[in-house]
Amino acid sequence: MDNITQLIFQIALILVPAGAVLMTAIFFMRKIAEKDLRASHSQLNAELKTERQKFFLPQRVDAYQRAVLLMERIHPNSLVMRLNNPGLPAAAMQIKLLDSIREEYEHNIAQQMFISVDAWNMVKKAKEETVKIVNLAGRQMEPTSNGMDLAGKIFEIVGEVGTLPTEIAVEILKKEVQQLF
To answer: Which residues constitute the domain of residue 96?
Structure first.
């Protein structure tokens, strides 16, 4: 039995250090494999981001263009010139202008998916401010006022405001689209 114990002891003297070396080797090999996997994952993420940008860039540029077009179309001066009907009663003209603003906005509402939250908020604010201008002018009309009177009052208010929210929104949209390139 003594020889067997001695043999087991000698085998243990060989196996314990070998096992420790094996475990150390496995530990370091795993660390290297994890590092390589992280590097590969980072490279893959970078490639995917580049591909997403290539795919979505045209849609984003289109969204910015459409948002700028929306701002130009609901700019009070443009709106009045496009929809002007001097013989229409002022109240009917006011409704026509407000409907046009709403339709333009609703037609372009999906563009918010492709532009920044800040830019879209500015677009919404510009729309709301334009509605306020039209309503303010409408409240100042007499029951006998016509579309020409309303148009004149809108132009007067626009002249007093200075830089309109639609103009500010266009500048923000232009700056952001330039940052895409």
So the answer is: 2-179
